[in-house]
Each structure stands twice: as structure tokens, then as C-alpha cells.
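**Sequence with structure:**
===
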Amino acid sequence: MSPARSRAARGSGRPAPFGGLLAGLLLAETIEFTVSAPGDHPVECSFHAALGQVGTMTVSG
């Protein structure tokens, strides 16, 4: 399987690459990261985006 490529919003409201965090990440694996701004952030991975599926990560606190 090829590594997943995911992106999350970084202030602009548009997804931005995670960079090296996902290098070698395969399906069903996870990562941890810190989000500095609460709110709804668009998230997409290359596999699901190709199917027209994107998500929203909601950060509170």
C-alpha cells in the first residue's frame, strides 16, 4: 500500500500539507499533532479526496 497524504487547515480555511508527519503512514495508522486554534478545520487524505470525501476536524478549548 502507498503512504497516505493528508492535509489540514492552518489558518487559511484551506487544507495545507502536514509535511513529514505522514511520511510512510499507511492505512489504519494514526498520528498525533497539536492544533493551536480552536474551530472547524477542513481535513482530507489523498485516498478519500479522490472519492470526493473530505472531513472536518472540530477543535475546542
Remarks:
- The mean pLDDT is 71.
